[in-house]
Give the backbone structure.
Amino acid sequence: MKKICVISGARSEYGQLRWIMQGIKDDPELHLQVIVTGMHLSPEFGLTYLDIERDGFVIDKKLEILLSSDTAAGVSKSVGLGTIAFADAFFDLKPDIILLLGDRFEAFAAATAAMISGIPIAHVHGGEVTQGAIDDVIRHALTKMSFWHFVSAEEYRQRVIQLGESPKRVFLCGGLGVDAIKRIPLLDRDTLEASLGFSFGERNLLITFHPVTLAQDGGLGQMDELLAALDSLKNTHLIITRPNADVGGREMTRMVEKFVTEHPNAKAFTSLGQQRYLSCLAQVDAVVGNSSSGLTEAPSFMKATVNIGERQLGRLKAKSVIDCPPTRVDIKAAVEKLYTPVFQTILQTVQNPYGGAGASDLIVETLRKLDSHKNVKKIFYDAPIRTDV
């Protein structure tokens, strides 16, 4: 059987990969291998590898690469440790194809080891643009190291081709976030409140704000402005998910912890898990912050998103997204806007630009058909010059 090695280093990443993994596991022609690393193995970030095991998957390798430091030097060292660890893991597992998603530094380490080992890479969600974070550079680097590409929108398919990849190896499948929404049974309001130990109020917001890795201070000033804006809101209950392990993430977490101790209307979570996170999306009025989830998943619930700053600059956005500068005045104004009758009317007809469900099945079906004889030779594809941009 064709061995497909799926790699995940973060809770949000696994949420998108889960149904691809299930499809591979259930396919008689494919054999699933799973490697977890990064935040999954850290108590600080909730030991989320346990969620993967609870979902019925066998983890073949657990690679400890995350250092206690979240400085630029610490993250760079984690990439180096990851490259070493992945090289050994690939030697042991001998996969036919490596499947990577997105733009995390753990994926960059895995791709480096796979590329040098001559193992072909299939990359999911390439071609996207997030100009406010180093993720942008990592994502495009992964595109060049990968042999096959599964993209979420036509605009992104064109960009991957623009990067010199043959159109024959670029597959338009749609976004993965919608698959989970369609497949996971959501908790009703009472059950969700009991699970969270949190009571919903008159108004409710889901807050996720990650480091802005290209900002001079890593986005700490922006987080301070966000918390100040949240402090000024009346009759609003707040569910806050803690920042990820990018540079500056731990200092942001300390800011969040201080905020929730001073605000009984707010509660912070290291990891909600996918079912509770999506259930929260269904119950709250809006997503506030700079996470991609506000752009890729919230529109499917016809929920508003207050997208702060430049971290997601360049991504496709639904009409439900309100962009705002990272100042307390602008954030508060954006939150007020989402409650206006005019904007609530707009939400009633919102369509998700990342499509409907089915991306996971399409990817699994394509993986089954791919020639995995480790042919990683690529000719740079010179795409015709576009005149429509």
Q: What stands out?
A: The mean pLDDT is 92. The chain has two domains: 2-174+358-369, 185-347. The first strand starts at residue 2 and ends at 8.
